[in-house]
Amino acid sequence: MLVIGNGLGGGNFPFAALIAKSELHVAGERALGYYTHEKNPVACAAALAATNYLERHQALQNVVEMSQFVETRIKQIQESHPIVKQFRASAC
User: Fold this and answer.
1) pTM of the predicted model as reported, rounded to 2 decimal places
2) CA pair distance 75, 69, nearest whole angstrom
3) Whole-angstrom Cα distance, residue 74 to residue 64?
């Protein structure tokens, strides 16, 4: 299972998602009442709009390109400033 959130609601609506294997999907059409914002149609619309925007504007590709630039630049800074001892980058 993978829980995702933050920007899914477009920054305006609290929204998160749980990604899991299909055999764990046991109550797709029912609100179980466990979560404050469970299956809120307005939040779902905001999440869909935010996701569509990110896909349409190739935001992930921009993140990859910018992270490569930032990593290169930080390594340059690290080489010229001995006080910078360690740099860690996480893979996208």
Assistant:
1) 0.52
2) 10
3) 15
